[in-house]
């Protein structure tokens, strides 16, 4: 009889944990774009680590997401469409950088607002962009610079 009670308690605990995960997932799915958002485009030489759904951040705070990413056949650059919440007005000299959360962290797009008194219109292109540099490229530059003194 005690064995049955233990099984029932363990089963109830498993169901409670599953319900908790379900509630958490349901709340997180709604954290995408809202209807109160504007789209901007940015063109990068390389968009390594960036995909649709990647965070767009300002000062480390999520303000939007990447909603489209495609290769431009004319320029061979990665054209990204960024959706940013309307409450954040972007100056027309805003820069977009592909940044990393650390050595092993994921990538995101960091918006660095400039000091212009004029704002970008929704649908405008962010012209000042900087792509990510791969870890292998950095290591090769470091090793190459060490051999220059020999």
Structure, explained:
- The chain has 150 residues and is an alpha/beta fold.
- The protein folds into 2 domains: 1-30; 37-133.
- It contains 2 helices and 8 strands.
- It has helices spanning 2-29, 135-147; strands at residues 37-44, 55-58, 61-71, 78-85, 95-100, 107-112, 125-126, 128-130.
- It has an 8-stranded mixed β-sheet with strand order 7-1-4-3-2-6-5-8, with no helix packed on it.
- The longest helix is centred in the first third of the chain and has 28 residues, at 2-29.
- The chain is extended.
- The mean pLDDT is 84.
Structural class label: alpha/beta
The major β-sheet equals: 8 strands, mixed
The whole-number mean of residue pLDDT values reads 84
Uncertain regions spanning at least 5 consecutive residues: none
Radius of gyration equals 22 Å
The overall number of domains is 2
Biggest sheet strand order reads: 7-1-4-3-2-6-5-8
User: So what's the overall shape?
Assistant: extended
Strand content is 25-35%
Distance between the termini: 80 Å
The share of residues in helices is 25-40%
Series of H and E elements:
HEEEEEEEEH
User: From the structure provided, what is the oligomeric state, counting identical versus distinct chains?
Assistant: single chain
- Count of extended strands: 8
Number of helices: 2
List keywords for this structure.
extended, alpha/beta, 32% strand, eight-stranded mixed beta sheet, 150 residues, 8 strands, 2 helices
């Amino acid at each position: 009889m005690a064995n049955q009670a233990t099984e029932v308690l363990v089963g109830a605990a498993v169901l409670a944990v599953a319900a908790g995960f379900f509630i958490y997932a349901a709340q997180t799915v709604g954290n995408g774009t809202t209807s109160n958002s504007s789209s901007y485009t940015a063109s990068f030489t390389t968009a390594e680590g960036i995909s649709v759904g990647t965070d767009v951040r300002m000062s480390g705070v999520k303000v939007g997401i990447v909603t489209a990413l495609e290769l431009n056949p004319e320029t061979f650059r990665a054209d990204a469409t960024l959706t940013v919440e309307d409450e954040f007005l972007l100056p027309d000299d805003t820069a977009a950088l592909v940044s990393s959360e650390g050595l092993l962290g994921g990538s995101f797009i960091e918006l660095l607002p400039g000091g212009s008194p004029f704002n970008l219109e929704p649908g405008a292109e962010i012209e000042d962009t900087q792509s990510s540099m791969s870890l292998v490229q950095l290591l090769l530059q470091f090793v190459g610079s060490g051999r220059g003194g020999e």
